[in-house]
Records
---
Amino acid sequence: MGEKKTEVLLIEDNPGDRRLIREAFDDGKMAVNLHTAQDGVEAVVFLRREGRYADAPRPDLIILDLNLPKKNGHEVLAEIKADEQLKRIPVVVLTSSEADTDIAKCYNLHANCYIAKPVDLEQFSAVVQTIENFWFTTVKLPKGE
């Protein structure tokens, strides 16, 4: 029997960033099952297990970009943290914004951490590896449903 994979929902509209994050997880030590949502509306539908996502697993971790179409990352974060079924899922904001207002707003909405995306490819991969090591090795996460 294989090891249980860690379920991660990546909410990211940029195909290049999605690919880089997938590759970094593939190169990592943990078995990660990476699900993606390309906009905020799709992310909420996935998390609420509606429509085509009725059988979606509950994520162990959410990686959230702020600059999303249809519903931005702040709105998605607010919905996650206001929902009794979802609020304990850790949310890592991984975004290109380094604006103090975005950082403060995310922590006010109970983001678990905020990371600015590095532009350098090696650093980008290192950041994803750090997320993996910290959230899946160091931290104790609550059990899912």
---
Amino acid sequence: MDQIKIGKFIASCRKEQGITQAALAEKLGISDRAVSKWETGKSMPDSGIMLELCDFLKLNVNELLSGERIMAEIYDKRAEENLLAMKRELEEKNKQMLKAEYLVVIPAVLAGLVLVFVASFVTMPVWLRIVLLAFALMMIFIVAFIAVGIEQKVGYYECQSCGHRYVPTYWQTNLAPHTGRTRYMKCPECGKRSWQRKVLTKED
């Protein structure tokens, strides 16, 4: 989606309604800075506020995401294009989140292992050795919990028995045996346990 085009369209529709950025922001319960970012193409309205924004600007969501008024005869086609564009953007964000998981985990685990090595083999007072070991283990555990949280929220797990894709709870994900991003869990659809792989979308 073209954020610059959408931003200009939001500005145009706002002016058509004769309201300022500050007035629109007040109606939506947000800052006028957020409205300014939309109109300059620096960000997009959150999905939770999109319907309310469209209501104030007298347009529909497909028109907002297209950055223009849509004729009735091409409405369905444009709606499909917008849905596909949103799906692609969500997939890309999910990929970035999973990459971020590695960027957080690998340096933290390596740093923790270095601290464990230092505490184990370098001569130092006992109290300092205990502090270093405790800090290293705490850091590794905290990062592991954060990493599982990222993985659990991004995408879905696919049951190998019935193909159902779902989002398990944090603790179901955290406590499940795993190899990489494949976890051994019970499917809520068929009730069978299997090694369920991480996928980014609800359906192929």
